Amino acid sequence: MATKRLTQKSYFISFLIHSVVFFGYLWFINTKTDITKASENVSFEISLSQFVQPTPPAPIVEEIIPPKPIEKPKPIKKEVVKPVKPIVKEKPVVPIEPVKEVVQEPVEEIIESKEIVQETKSSVTPQPVISSEQISKAFVQTNFTIIRDMVLRNLIYPGMAKRMGHTGVVEMTLVIDANGRLLKYFISKKSHSKLLDKAALDSVEKVAKADFPKPQVKSTIILPVSFRLN
Fold this sequence. Notes:
This protein is an alpha+beta fold. 41% of the residues lie in helices and 11% in strands.
């Protein structure tokens, strides 16, 4: 049974193959005839208009502008300079003054006038001359308390010096100019404690840029700064 089925399948496959080949051959013949027919009926049309030469463009005409004629320079007329006549200055006429008569005064009157002048000179009393030292002393006497209060307002008693029981007096020297500015300051007399000396110097340094009273001349003030424990 199996061999019979195989033979049937082989016959069927061979039949399909032969039928495909046959129909393919017929299709090839039909398409070949159509190609030959199409090739026989093809016609080409060529128009001569394609080979007509194009018309050349119109020539460009350039306008030539003639150059302007060069104007000849006009001749320069020379001006005739007329000679200038020298101006003669006329001498001014000096009027003749009449001679004045000198009248001599009597000698007695002149002597009297001299005596009056001498009396007026002797009547003026000379003013006493005040020296710069006197002006400086007067300034110190009137403004000492103001400057002292300015310095002592910024004085701080060092805490270390209090605990160690340091007391004393530090003399500070201040130099003030006529504009009321502090020119320089220094310790003229120290105490026995460096802490107190530094505190006195710092108190003056805090007011170094302040405006002090203005003396007439540069003045020097010696300011004692005392440190005491209550």
